[in-house]
Amino acid sequence: MSAYVKPRWMRDLLRFLPLKSQFVLSGNIRDLQPCEVAPGVVTAQTLPATLCDSLQGVGYTQVVIWNPMSGFSVPETKGTSSEATEETLRRLGLTPVDGAAPGGIDILAATLERVVNLAGGPLALIVDFASRLAVRTETLSAAEHSLFTRALVLAHQAAPRPAGEPRRPFFNTIFWIVDKEGDLPDWLLINNPRIRHIPISRPDSASRRALSGALLRGVPGAHQVAPDILAQADAAFVDGSDGLLLADMNAIATLARVENVTVDKIADAVRRYKVGVTEDPWLQIDREKIRNAETFVRNRVMGQAHAVTHMLDLVKRAMTGVGSRRKGNRPRGVAFLAGPTGVGKTELAKTITSLLFGDEAAYIRFDMSEFSAEHADQRLIGAPPGYVGYDVGGELTNAIRERPFSVVLFDEIEKAHPRILDKFLQILDDGVLTSGRGDRVYFSEALIIFTSNLGIYRQDEGLGRVANVSPGDSFETIQERVLSEIQRHFKLVLNRPEILNRIGENVIVFDFIRSDVADEIFEQMVRMVLDDIAAQGIQITLEHDSKSLLKQRCLQDLSNGGRGIRNQIEAHLINPVARALFDQDAKPGDHFMLSGLSSGALQLQKL
Known about the structure:
The protein contains 23 helices and 23 strands. The chain is an alpha/beta fold. The longest helix has 23 residues, at 561-583. The chain is elongated.
């Protein structure tokens, strides 16, 4: 086991203690901080507690903490009596009550001077929640201005003095703990050589690794499993908590104890904490249903056997978790569906959703043509602080937070602004997106599907738009040309080849609707129309010649695929039938013969 190394911010602070009279700590201040309480024993403490231990470890004889709620207090340490604690407060001119001395901003301002000039062993004052001291740093009240003016003057007046056996120089140091540096007046900090600002970053892998062992010891089964299993759990805990705080890791360990998640399944506790779902819905899916799904899907997405097989493979991989669980954050699956319009790309996404959820409307769909403006990303993730709509949140982040287990469809992705595509890099690579409010939203349980018409057309030398593929081409030719054009578009036009790299081999090319498939689609659509009418108790028989002519009209132009066939059926069958049924005041139990399409005058004869 390697020796514990203090976080960088702590090493910087200890290095500058003899040189600066005041410090400003900002950033990840409300998180737990790793602290070595004994050789080889690392625990997590609040920032004030960690500061106390570290300062006393280097020679400070006393630490006083102030916060807006309880005023002044002295943390109890081993060997420190309550009498000594109260004596410290009295030396600062305070009146202790039950070990603490109440005091607002005025008393804090007066106490600063006493702290800096107090004789005896070195003392530190930690001003916690200092961001709440000023309402607005640009327009300070009289009390606020007095406080920070005293702090500025004292920063320059303070002088170090030797203390302890090595006779090291010590200040009576003041620490300001703020959310961000701008929460204190600029004139206090800028160009002030006596104040040091130290940002505290989010925990890195070393900090998480230092704490993970101690946390896992309290997880069920940690004392019974073999060392290699415990080591695997430790690695899974560290990797799975990437991007989380140490406070989150502590909460995950608590969650595992409360819900009796054993140490070898700590990754499941991480997942539960991130997405808020106790059961893993991917494990609840009926495997037999997926195993026999190919016929079901092909009945709805006709003529695209290659796409159906590839998409079902993605679903099976998502269910088993093979190859998609590294670091536990990436989406369960990613697919890029490319091909001509009306060939079943969106229908395949709906069908997969129906297969997984039992409801095709359960998918989350975004029409990316609505996100062509540069700042449209704010609709997805929410507006930043200070902008209209900040409190509402983003459409995408809100939807995933509500339904982390979902199919997310980004329709016509090529129409989105390139700035939007940068957001997808975060989703595909890290499985996480930070909202405008700063919340982290996880996509680790989602299946991401992009659709696009890229590759069907290309630009010629005159920058005109010409067909890149045609229905007469073989599927192999279509696939090759479409993939080549997609690669060119992302590399040369968008200058974002890394997006395709994240998608990998999951770019699925759809074929044109061929004549034999068009026949099947026509028959299915007509049957569905007649079945819908039959569901109302009205029977319609379609005359053979009329059906043949309708079929000829619907299939004469397949450039718009199945959507074009549906449009023709609406124009030449659904609308005329609806008009005729209305005019004849049709009622349940009626039976009609539909004819006349060949002559151009549809007739609905009651039988």
